[in-house]
Amino acid sequence: PTVTPYETPQTFVLEIGSEELPAGDLISAIRQLRISVPEFLEKLRLMGHGQVIIDSTPRRLAVILEDLQPRQDDLETVATGPPADRAFDAEGNPTKAAEGVARSRGVSIDDLEVVEEKGRRYVTAVVREAGRPAVEVLAENLADLVASLKFEKSMRWNESKINFSRPLRWLLALYGMDIVPF
Question: Which pTM was predicted?
Answer without folding.
Answer: 0.78
